[in-house]
Amino acid sequence: SVLIVDFGSQVTQLIARRVREAGVYSEIVPFTTAAEAFARMQPKGVILSGSPASVLDEGSPRVPPVVFESGVPVLGICYGQQVMMQQLGGQVVLGESGEFGQAFIEIQDDCVLFDGLWAPQERHQVWMSHGDKVIELAPGFRPVAVSPGSPFAVVADDARRYYATQFHPEVVHTPDGAKFLANFVRHVCGLSGEWTMAEFRAAKIADIRKQVGVGKNGGRVICGLSGGVDSAVAAVLIHEAIGEQLTCVFVDHGLMRSGEADQVVSLFRNSYNIPLVHVNAEATFLAGLAGVTDPEKKRKFIGAAFIDLFEAEAKKVGGADFLAQGTLYPDVIESVSFTGGPSVTIKSHHNVGGLPERMNMQLVEPLRELFKDEVRALGRELGLPEAFVGRHPFPGPGLAIRIPGEVTKERCDILRKADAIYLEEIRNAGLYDTIWQAFAVLLPVRSVGVMGDGRTYDNVLALRAVTSTDGMTAQAFEFPGGFLARVSTRIVNEVRGVNRVTYDYTSKPPGTIEWE
Ligand code: XMP
């Protein structure tokens, strides 16, 4: 395994992801507990992350000495390089000007990290983000690549198997970064690269059992299902770990897409035999949404009602010690701001935030390190059907935030019907998997049309489809010619209440994916 020592960089999880992609197991641990983790894991290699801190600050984080005493290979990235140099006898100074963003390094010498990748005299694109810089290498190191802002873009001490980079190989803006990291774990640490999702599953099951306890003294876990992929994968995994100690509660707000609620219920009860409490609360939600048009008020009401209903159900089943959530890594980073200061709330995302404190429960979040596509891979590994695992993301507040203006049963039904036609056409065209998310929005606008010999005055629908890798940025999807015309004709012909269809071309930013 590889131990990743986290010094607080925004992109530490990407290091773990790249190591996973190279087929090697890794764990991220905060620098504060890295010594214990090292003793427990006996890793074959250590990677030191970047950090918002400066090694020149008093009390800034350090690498536990055991790492350097043990003789295992070490790769330092950015702050990781600086802290390595400082602890091993080099010198770091405050940079006069930093390097941020795209940069080019020039390869100066051969290095095992460049195997099959880079050769001397070549220039390669990397992504830099640093203010401080190393001015004197620690004994034993030689520079193997330089950049305009840093004579030590990559440095190597082959005898001790210590390597360090000023740039960030883990981000996609360093195009060869994944292979660079794979070279470290395979060629330097000698790890074989056969670790798979099957092993992630086994490791997480062991973690869950350890956290919750099993058998007589085991804790009780309650899991709120949203109907989406993340919470379902989390629930199935946890059920595999602790069986009947888990209770799943599906608070069905009636704002799901066509047929989805039934699909979840049948998947859990019939395919997996996981006991599921299905709370059909459509009437409660619609009543609460009556007259509400402000997007944030809708979100707040839905979030609060969800929590109330969930809590009431949890009491009925006799309470629980743990709350399980399908939190993913992007949820974790989105909630932390880059500067450490408070971040602006763009939208109040719907989750069960606040519940753990209120109900005095600890969290079980087995997917915290994963990205969406990895959760899907884990879902497949757990045997969830492809049609379920590959489903587009769907927001917690459901159709309510795709109906600007007042939400009524009638408007939900119109939207569900139009949305189903749109998605059916996308599936038939073989485009479903290339699109991150596609959906219809029912606008609070009516337009005049003519159908047969009569005048119509009906609703306008907007279609949206975006490509994205993480939902944080997105671009409008370009459909092949004729596709949107076909969908538009079908919707206007088949859905009563819609007489005009438009397409939303806005990217994110400046738009968001959802309309509210
Ligand atoms: P926005 O609209 O903020 O959406 O660009 C980014 C991604 O998040 C989804 N989304 C939500 N997911 N609860 C969720 O679980 C929410 O309240 C919520 N709001 C938006 C959205 O569908 C997109 O995938």
UniProtKB/TrEMBL annotation:
So, what pathway does this thing act in?
Answer: Purine metabolism; GMP biosynthesis; GMP from XMP (L-Gln route): step 1/1
Q: Which domain of life is it from?
A: Bacteria
Query: Which residues are recorded as binding ATP?
Result: 226-232
State the coiled-coil residue ranges: none
Give the active-site positions: 78, 168, 170
Q: Which PROSITE patterns match?
A: GATASE_TYPE_1 (PS51273), GMPS_ATP_PPASE (PS51553)
Q: Which residues cross the membrane?
A: none
The answer to whether the entry has keyword rRNA-binding is no
The record's GO molecular-function terms, alphabetically, read:
ATP binding; GMP synthase activity
Reported EC number(s) for this entry are 6.3.5.2
Catalytic reaction list: XMP + L-glutamine + ATP + H2O = GMP + L-glutamate + AMP + diphosphate + 2 H(+)
Q: Name one GO cellular component term.
A: cytosol
Keywords attached to this entry: ATP-binding, Glutamine amidotransferase, GMP biosynthesis, Ligase, Nucleotide-binding, Purine biosynthesis
InterPro entries in the cross-refs: Class_I_gatase-like, GATASE, GMP_synth_C, GMP_synth_GATase, GMP_synthase, GMPS_ATP_PPase_dom, NAD/GMP_synthase, Rossmann-like_a/b/a_fold
**CDD domains (alphabetical):** GATase1_GMP_Synthase (cd01742), GMP_synthase_C (cd01997)
Q: Which residues form the GMPS ATP-PPase domain?
A: 195-391
Could you say which enzyme class this protein belongs to?
Answer: ligase
Question: Subunit details for this protein?
Answer: Homodimer.
What function is annotated for this protein? Catalyzes the synthesis of GMP from XMP.
Q: What is this protein called?
A: GMP synthase [glutamine-hydrolyzing]
Q: Which organism is it from?
A: Sphingomonas populi
